[in-house]
Design brief:
Elements (H helix, E strand, L loop, with lengths): L1 H27 L4 H17 L3 H5 L2 E9 L6 E2 L1 H12 L9 E11 L4 E11 L5 E14 L2 E11 L9 H4 L17 H17 L2 H5 L2 E9 L6 E2 L1 H11 L10 E13 L2 E11 L5 E13 L5 E10 L3 H6 L1
Parallel strand pairs: 1-6, 7-12
Antiparallel strand pairs: 1-2, 3-4, 4-5, 5-6, 7-8, 9-10, 10-11, 11-12
């Protein structure tokens, strides 16, 4: 009997070990947030090459927002987002038949379900010549095994040495009324953060501008050649933007908030418009922004990611 008991104990232990090993294997097979973001970007690229506007729009959450530099205004919701892709792929579009490539540079989970990522992209024509290139900074939401874009904020790099006079005369589209959704109670804190940022630009204070970011914050803007990570790097690149001879030297900044939404406790996204004017009051650039923010212990808001860029519509090509 003791022999039988020993055998049964050994068998039970073996079964338990197999179950535990199986569980560990299953867990280890779960893709990381990094892998999920990379997979999402790769799917985006494949659908782009297939000119699949429907498939691309389905990569976004139902309430997703698309903020890109070839458009003056954001596309909100899948139907509007699908329309932007349909227009891009339509015959006669400057982007029809273009090839899109992209790289993921950083992925940062903010909660169990919310993750942000940023990287670079290149759009080339059929002959392989670069049409546009730039940077992106997106926010994603995980729902079960799926990962959807809650905000795409992608902007083309802008050569600050080129003629900018066309911005002053470009036709400006009128935005829809602002929607603060479930984050309306945080509007005051966000407005104060925006006011401090605007004041930093007015004072040409790189340190004050960098202070509006979290310690691991990133600034992804079209006027800089690469993303700036951390307050020291953000301050350094801001000083370059304020330097003598820059179009932003002695510039004043205006900001319009069009959307605000809470994604998780203490985490929110916002998007809107911006405009920079020179000392003479003339517009030197305008565009869109799509940012991710974190509520601090004192109730104030800091940027985890700023992703903003100047408009690069057909008026720019006509001005060359």
């Amino acid at each position: 009997m003791r022999g039988h008991t020993l055998i049964w104990n050994i068998l039970a232990a073996a079964a338990l070990l197999m179950a535990l090993t199986s569980g560990i294997s299953a867990q280890s097979a779960e893709p990381t947030m990094q892998e999920r973001v990379v997979a999402n970007v790769n799917t985006f690229l494949k659908l782009w090459q297939a000119a699949d506007a429907e498939g691309l729009s389905n990569l976004f959450a139902e309430d997703g927002v698309r903020v890109i530099s070839s458009q003056q205004l954001p596309a909100v919701g899948r139907a509007a987002i699908r329309k932007t892709f349909e227009d891009t792929f339509a015959e006669g579009s400057p982007f029809a038949g273009a090839t899109l490539t992209a790289k993921v540079h950083r992925v940062l989970p903010l909660s169990d379900t919310i993750v942000i990522g940023d990287g670079t992209w290149v759009l080339s024509d059929k002959a392989g010549a670069v049409v546009l290139k730039g940077k992106w900074g997106n926010a994603f939401r995980a729902t079960g095994s799926e990962l959807h874009l809650v905000m795409e904020s992608a902007h083309a790099d802008i050569d600050l040495s080129k003629d900018r006079s066309w911005y002053a005369t470009a036709h400006r589209e009128t935005p829809a009324p602002a929607n603060y959704g479930n984050a309306e109670k945080l509007l005051g804190a966000f407005q104060r953060s925006a006011d401090r940022y605007i004041a930093a630009v007015r004072m040409q204070s790189a340190g004050a501008l960098a202070a509006e970011f979290t310690a691991d914050g990133v600034r992804v803007v079209s006027s800089l050649p690469a993303a700036s990570r951390g307050k020291a790097a953000i301050a350094k690149t801001a000083r370059a933007e304020f330097a003598k001879g820059s179009p932003f030297e002695q510039a004043t900044l205006g900001v319009t908030i069009l959307g605000l939404r809470s994604l998780a406790p203490g985490i929110l996204i916002g998007n809107g418009l911006w405009e920079a004017k020179g000392p003479d009051g003339g517009v030197v650039e305008f565009g869109q922004w799509g940012n991710v923010m974190k509520v601090q212990n004192d109730g104030e808001i800091k940027f985890i990611m700023e992703s903003a860029g100047g408009y690069v519509g057909p008026e720019q090509s006509e001005a060359k």
